[in-house]
Design a protein that fits this description.
The strands form 6 sheets. A 4-stranded antiparallel beta sheet has the order 5-4-6-7. It has a 4-stranded antiparallel beta sheet with strand order 10-9-11-12. Strands 1-2 form a two-stranded antiparallel sheet. It contains 13 helices and 16 strands. The mean pLDDT is about 90. α1 packs across α10 and α1 packs across α11. It is elongated. It starts with a helix and ends with a helix. Among the domains are: about 100 residues, PDZ domain (Pdz3 Domain), CATH 2.30.42.10; about 80 residues, PDZ domain (Pdz3 Domain, Roll). By secondary structure, it is of the alpha+beta class. Belongs to the peptidase M50B family.
Length: about 450
């Protein structure tokens, strides 16, 4: 069932994005007066089709459910070349270069517009996300050495306001990629605490692996509530020791326990060893001896009790105009960050393992779909941005390759010679297959 769910989530995420992309090409081609012969959802053999409209455009569904295309009247292909003089003015290559640029660019632009719309809708609806309050950190961590303390709330990074954990990570990833210092603006645990600043040095930011857990590497973890027992399972160490629902764990072996994660870590490291667990029960302080059982699979300690560890949540919300502005800003920043990552991969500053393919996309699609509608829509928005950026890369056979040809035509005043175009197309197909092979290889490595 999980596999079916993942495949359906993948198709539901990628299918509409490709359709929207191709609709961009179709709509602008019609506006520019170019005759559209076929609009296909999917690739390969056509399994269903109908003709509509004054031009009798064929709307088709093809066998391979990934991809799609718009086939226009085009003299370069014998199967799509005009068959009568009346259609000549509506042939693609006879249009001026600016119309051709508009038609080709319309696909990626449609993906960016869709991403802005989805993000704006999410901002207007309001997103529940973990806040930026920090859990107590190790004294050797980068953030502790910079003067940050547990319980403090990050309100800005390098002058950019942050409300949620996602926004905090976003700004720190940006600083790591740019190899810049990250200046944090924080306030203390009390709401009216005076703000202060802490600087994470540029050399420490540059050394981070942008593909890994950047916040964890800096020593930053989400704030968690105090460790309260939510449920005690029968016949387990917790039940035998007398732990009860509602008990607040305050200490283990005399050492304070700050949150549920600290409690779980202490238990996991003490399989078969007695622990003196101090709990606050109402107004009474009680110490109970608890000996964790050894988990037969992991070998770690377990006490068979559920403990509160959900992070502090905030609602990120905006009005209609502000939401559109936020959506446009997030789309632009994501696009710029993607381009920077690609550039750094090319020069070897970022590992090629960051290239992901359909297996990883499907896996993340399934995970976000199971998490709820909001995470899934946000995932679709980010994939739409990635699709737009990737199509704008100056690789022949992609939209960006065609835009490169037309840009050269604008500069030189004449079209690219057909022979050079053919060679570039072959090279582009080869490069595209190499990238696809690398992406699938990375996917399989992650999977296995």
């Amino acid at each position: 069932m999980n596999l079916i769910h993942t495949v359906l989530a993948f198709l539901l995420a990628l299918g509409p994005l490709i359709i929207f992309h191709e609709l961009g090409h179709y709509a602008v081609a019609r506006l520019c007066g170019v005759k559209v012969l076929r609009f296909s959802i999917g690739m390969g053999r056509i399994v269903w089709s109908r003709r509509f409209g004054p031009d009798q455009t064929e709307w088709a569904i093809s066998a391979l459910p990934i991809g799609g295309y718009v086939k226009m009247l085009d003299a370069r292909d014998p199967t799509t070349a005009p068959t009568n003089d009346a259609d000549l003015p509506r042939e693609f290559t006879r249009q001026n270069v600016w119309k051709r640029i508009a038609i080709v660019a319309a696909g990626p632009i449609a993906n960016f517009i869709l991403a802005i719309a989805l993000m704006a809708a999410l901002f207007m609806h309001g997103k529940e996300e973990p806040g930026t309050r920090l859990r107590p950190m190790a004294q050797a961590s980068v953030v502790y050495q910079a003067g940050v303390r547990g319980g403090d709330v990050v309100t800005a990074v390098n002058g950019r306001p942050v409300q949620s954990w996602t926004e905090l990570r976003w700004e720190l990833v940006r600083a790591a990629i740019d190899k810049h210092a990250a200046e944090l603006t924080l306030r203390g645990p009390v709401a009216d605490s005076a703000p202060y600043r802490a600087v994470l040095p540029a050399d420490r930011m540059a050394a981070l692996d942008v593909d890994g857990d950047i916040l964890g590497a800096l020593g930053m973890q989400m704030w968690r509530p105090r460790p309260t027992i939510e449920k005690v399972l029968p016949d387990g160490p917790a039940a035998r020791a007398g732990l009860r629902q509602g008990d607040l764990v305050t200490a283990i072996d005399g050492k304070p326990v700050v949150d549920g994660i600290a409690f779980i870590e202490a238990v996991r490291g003490a399989a078969g060893k007695p622990l003196q667990v101090g709990v606050l029960r109402g107004a009474d302080q009680v110490v109970l001896p608890v000996t964790p059982d050894r988990d037969p699979q992991s070998g770690k300690g377990i006490v068979k009790a559920m403990i509160a560890q959900a992070p502090e949540m905030v609602t990120v919300q905006a009005g209609p105009l502000d939401a559109v502005a936020k959506g446009a800003k997030r789309t632009w920043e994501t696009s710029a960050l993607t381009v920077k990552m690609i550039a750094k991969m090319i020069v070897g500053e970022v590992s090629l393992k960051n290239v992901t393919g359909p297996i990883t996309i499907a896996d993340v699609a399934g995970q976000t779909a199971r998490s709820g509608v909001e995470p899934f829509l946000e995932f679709i928005a980010f994939i739409s941005i990635s699709l737009g950026v990737m199509n704008l890369l100056p690789i022949p056979v992609l939209d960006g390759g065609h835009l490169l040809y037309y840009s050269l035509e604008v500069l030189t005043g004449r079209p690219l010679p057909a022979r050079i175009g053919e060679i570039a197309q072959r090279a582009g197909v080869g490069l595209l297959f190499m990238l696809m092979a690398l992406a699938v290889f990375n996917d399989l490595v992650r999977l296995l």
